[in-house]
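To: structure desk
From: M.T.
Subject: fold request, one chain
Message: Could you run this one when you get a chance? Sequence is below, nothing fancy, just the single chain.
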Amino acid sequence: MLRRTLTVLALTLAPALSAACSSPEGRTPTEEKAYALMVRDEALSDLYVREPQAREKLEGAPGYVFFSGFSLHPGLLTFANAYGIVQDNVTGKQTHMRLTRFGIGPGLAIKGYYLVAILGSDEAVAALSESNWNAGGLAEASFRFGDFGGSAAAEGLGGSAVTESYLWTHTGFALELAGAVGKVYPEDDLN
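Reply: Done. Structure tokens follow.
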């Protein structure tokens, strides 16, 4: 009985907790935009140290998307929420975005993560800047707190124009395998 109650409580609170933990800090839209850009720049610096060839790929692509998020996977269902930026490398336009994802599969995780995906065409950049549904899969094993630990992850996005993606846990742990469906949409207050 207690286990069922805790499971129901976790599943009820997960989306709210996920939303609260994955919003850019700041009291005004200007502060939130500045914070999102700062986190993106820090994550890209981290990515370039880990994957030096990623800089050339991102800069040479029509665009890319960056997300910073929180994910909770308490057994069979997984929930994630993130904020991010679609960068159009042709026009220089930045569109602030949100991502919400739900999935199913075995695993345990509570983590903060970064996702950077290279967009292979101008059409993909434009499409991702609008409200958009996507589906895919995720496999990850990670344990990372500060500079301690490491991460190994793979993510596939079905039906998208993503040519390559980088996913890594920056805080927390994960041992999960899941299929997921998600939605990306513009952050109206920040655009």
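Reply (cont.): The two ends are 47 Å apart (CA to CA). Let me know if you need anything else for the meeting.
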